[in-house]
């Protein structure tokens, strides 16, 4: 299995791109079919794993690989046991994710590059960093009323010294 140190251009402080590359290589090598049923998001060293896996053993192994990847600070393994979704579910999730991204971009209180959004089976996963609890609440409030959203999980850290930069998508439970 290829580890973080094997990714070309590696330096002492792994970036999210290097973490993502290492996870892609390792999880693809673990099980090709399952890899294509996963969604992997990395934000400031925090990893969000979503999607479907066929067995509890594979679910645990995926979480362990993520945890042991160089530079990973925290892992949110929100994978579920089961089979892949059909095309209509996928397109519905894409619509929800696109709607959230547009709302975040249009909201002056949020910085789009401070958020990442994923949607699986109508469940929204927000990963990011807010300057305050109020900003976090704004991000979550954008997602909750959208048609098709069944549940919201928010993995949003509050860091008052967060720099002003664009953000991505977010939501909470």
Largest sheet: 4 strands, mixed
Number of strands: 7
CATH fold label of the largest domain: Histidine-containing Protein, Chain: A
Which structural class best describes the helix and strand composition?
alpha/beta
Helical amount: 25-40%
User: What's the SSE pattern?
Assistant: HHEEHEEHEEHE
* Measured distance between first and last alpha carbons: 35 Å
Provide the low-confidence segments as ranges: 1-12, 165-173
Q: Which class of the largest domain in CATH terms? A: Alpha Beta
Shape: globular
Q: Mean of residue pLDDT?
A: 87
The number of helical segments is: 5
Give me the Rg, rounded: 16 Å
In the CATH hierarchy, what is the architecture of the largest domain at level 2?
Answer: 2-Layer Sandwich
How many distinct domains? 2
Taken as a percent bin, the fraction of beta residues is 15-25%
Features:
Histidine-containing Protein, Chain: A, alpha/beta, disordered C terminus, 36% helix, four-stranded mixed sheet, globular, 7 strands, 173 residues
Structural commentary:
This protein is of the alpha/beta class and 173 residues long. 36% of the residues lie in helices and 24% in strands. The chain contains five helices and seven strands, in the order H-H-E-E-H-E-E-H-E-E-H-E. It has helices spanning 16-30, 32-35, 56-67, 87-106, 133-143, and strands spanning 38-43, 46-53, 74-77, 80-81, 115-120, 123-130, 151-158. Strands 1, 2, 3 and 4 form a four-stranded mixed β-sheet that branches. A three-stranded mixed β-sheet has the order 5-6-7. Mean pLDDT is 87; it is low at 1-12 and 165-173.
């Amino acid at each position: 299995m290829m580890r973080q140190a094997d990714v070309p251009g590696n330096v002492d402080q792994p970036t999210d791109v290097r973490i993502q590359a290492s996870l892609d290589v390792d999880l693809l090598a673990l099980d090709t079919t399952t890899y294509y049923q996963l969604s992997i998001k990395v934000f400031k060293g925090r990893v969000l794993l979503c999607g479907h896996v066929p067995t509890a053993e594979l679910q645990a192994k995926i979480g362990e690989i993520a945890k042991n990847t160089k530079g990973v600070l925290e892992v949110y393994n929100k994978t579920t046991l089961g089979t892949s979704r059909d095309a209509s579910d996928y397109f519905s999730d894409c619509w929800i994710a696109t709607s959230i991204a547009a709302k975040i971009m249009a909201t002056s209180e949020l910085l789009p590059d401070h958020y990442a959004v994923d949607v699986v089976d109508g469940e929204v996963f927000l990963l990011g960093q807010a300057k305050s609890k109020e900003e976090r609440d704004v991000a979550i409030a954008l997602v909750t009323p959208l048609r098709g959203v069944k549940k919201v999980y928010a993995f949003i850290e509050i860091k008052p010294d967060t720099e002003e930069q664009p953000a991505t998508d977010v939501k909470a439970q």
